[in-house]
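Lab notebook, bench 4. We co-purified these components, and the gel suggests they stay together. Before we commit to crystallization screens, I want a quick structural picture of the whole thing.
Request: model the full complex, all chains together.
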Amino acid sequence: MKVTVIGAGVVGSLIARELSRYDLELSIIEQNLDVGWATTKANSAILHAGYDDPPNSVRSKFCSKGNSMYTRLSEELDFEIKRTGSYVAAFNNEELRTLKKLLKQGRINNVPDLEIHERETLIQREPELNPDIQYGLWAPTAGITEPWEVAIAAVENAVANGARIILGEKVVGFEKRRSKITEITTQKGVYKTDLVVNAGGIFADDIAQLAGAEYVPLHPRRGEYIVLDRKPGFAVKTVIFPSPTAVSKGILVVPTVNGEILLGPTAVDLSSDMKNSTRTTKEGLNRVMRSAKFLVPSLDFSRVIKTFSGLRPESPQKDFFIGASKRVPNFINVMAMRSPGLTAAPAVAEHVVEEIIQQKLKFKLSKKRDFNPKRSRIKRFGELPPEQWREAVRKDPAAGKLVCHCNKVTEAEIVEAIRRGARTLDGVKFRTRAMFGRCQGGFCSISIMKILKRELGIDMSRLRMKSQNSWIVSGKVRE
Amino acid sequence: MKTDVLVIGAGAAGMAAAISAARNNVRVVLVDRDERTGGVLNQCIHSGFGLHYLKEELTGPEYAERFSSLLKEYEIDVVTECCVHTIKPNGEAILISPSGVHEIVSKAIICATGAREKPFGSLMIPGDRPSGIFTAGVAQRYLNIENRLIGKRALILGSGDIGMIMARRLTLEGVEVACVVERLPYPSGLLRNVIQCLEDFNIPLYLSSTVVEVRGKERLEEVVVAKVDSEHKPILGTERTFKVDTLILSVGLIPETKLLENVVKRDPSSEGILCSSVAESSAEPIFAAGNCTVIYDFADYVTIEGEKAGKYAALYAKGERFDRGIPITRGENIGILFPQRWAKDDDLILYIRSARPMRKAKLIVNSFENTFEDITPGEMMRVKVPYRHLANCQELIVSLREE
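Here is the predicted assembly.
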């Protein structure tokens, strides 16, 4: 049986990895040149505890379950998570009422160990918090991760278990026979299929329409972010939320797994024809600064290293839209994966494969005997103690050649990233954290270009930053 | 491994420091993370180096060659492709290189790690995130070392020296430079570069202007420039759009001090390693010189300060200890000041950037006074204050009083 997953964001990637447990011909089609490059690479990177979602919503069904699945998943797929816990801050009695509502909601949603803390505890645990804070809703199961690394890890593991990844191809049409899809057409090729899972992110409604299936209309909700460099003596240890409004969870202060501070997002609804509009705005960035500074007044904006924006797929229902199509019997929608999509993804993946494909659609899948659930990350030599690093350099001198000095990334790691599929500067960046630090590639981007050129055996003018036309250098100065 | 003096970084400061230490008869190890010595000098193929120090005009690579040949002459142990992993307070360092991970014990360390460029991300410029945005140093390296063109039509943000030099270089290679845009009401680099790199090539310089948006989904397509008010805030309605595929940033250098972030004190205004007049940092046995202490205008000054650090580190390695001295502080109209302590050793050489341009001002340090004309933050002042003016005080306050 041929199964095709459209979209290699965190949702599609985890569904593919779940499917790779079974004996089938599995393909993943992604329009970008690498996995996890749309919503997955530009969000708050949080594993939400699950108190936010209205009981009885689809979101509430998957959030706290997905959260708890991340522990095992991160061990199997060897990506980083940190259970930092989170606080929702309350500065007055009205906001305290909101906390109490969230606490109640969280208990209904089976979120463990929620507590309301008072000012003294809050300030003791997070000394940088605005001293006017009164209460905080403590959720110890909340955490942080690197969402793109989750997608990369899941796809690597799926591929190791026999899946095929097709990058840089956009789905442009479906061939059907007796209302069932038989072929998927991209701008480059035609692929036969018996079952389609639509995890097309912000474009999932367009894909469903192309297939003639049910959909909810999606529009992008833009979130702008600011990243601050590490600063000696300054630390925020937990994820800090303001009290939520009717519109969103507000602008947060998030420690990243890499030690930086992430601030954001804004929440601006864009029209459905702006699905590529990942631009930042002056108003948005100012808003992030203002709101974040209110929560943590000592934030130092002279340490900004990057600003960016991401688009979340939002629907009028503000809820996930997951299920088998009635009109197209071999088509499954996994769309409107707005927040907490990242957190819910592992539970959603399991639901799609076990309950929808096998129980509902009655596809008979048989488990592979030799499925390997393990994947190892690229070894980070810079994090090793000197004795172990010495041993590694003895085996491979490239492990002693530092390329990115901000994040201590060696040539050996960059070569390994290319071996695992990085073809662009951003591909190397998201796999290794090179160019992610305070100089943003000022020292290392040229060295990385030269390694890409050497390993791929192509001219520098053919190397790209992220997409087909994002060229970096053109011809030679002198022949 | 054991040595007397370990020098970190083999650019202008580090090479001069290593040679000077060797001249003082101590053993020296010089390490650099690049594949060769010379640092950023290697990519500065324009001339103008050596005018002060060698009294002749050389290109960057020629200037570097003078010192690298001396490194050989003095039989200095040069280790390239080598990074310093950690420095312990006792002077022990761990080095990482393709040949292995080594510990080195030295009696004195000279930090000569240079500077890094302020990246695009730190400027918080709204818009898209396309390819085609380079810092001036990266652009310079692509052209001069990698032999690569980086676009067809460029706009340069910031009138720092490398930015202006790149404007000329790109023009000479057939790349059209639309303009140079500077946020301040005066150029931030040297006047000689404004004339030789911009005016001589009819490249417009727009002062009190900045980039307010970049556009382009994949490669850069448009840059929006607006005028700014006296608080550097863009003025609505003054926007102009330039169709360019390349944006080059020359918006400032930051002393590279990460290695010693938790070890030495830094100057809050320059972000450089705080030093005394004998190049000693706040933590023994660490000395420092060059752009990791303060951003200089000329490689020549970096060389002179590197030599000084080499000499005093060598003396330190031989057992001599120096007076912690008295603080030198910024008074009226002083933007950047180096060094920050006077070790009561000798005449004091001060490096100063004024806080703002001034037609005429009197420099005052204790009983020393001297009048200067046409002062601008873009041109660093180098002033020698004779010993006799410095006696009998607890603190030296440096001021520029406008006349």
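The two ends of chain B are 57 Å apart (CA to CA). Worth comparing against the SEC data before the next meeting. Chain B touches chain A through 48 residues (CB under 8 Å).
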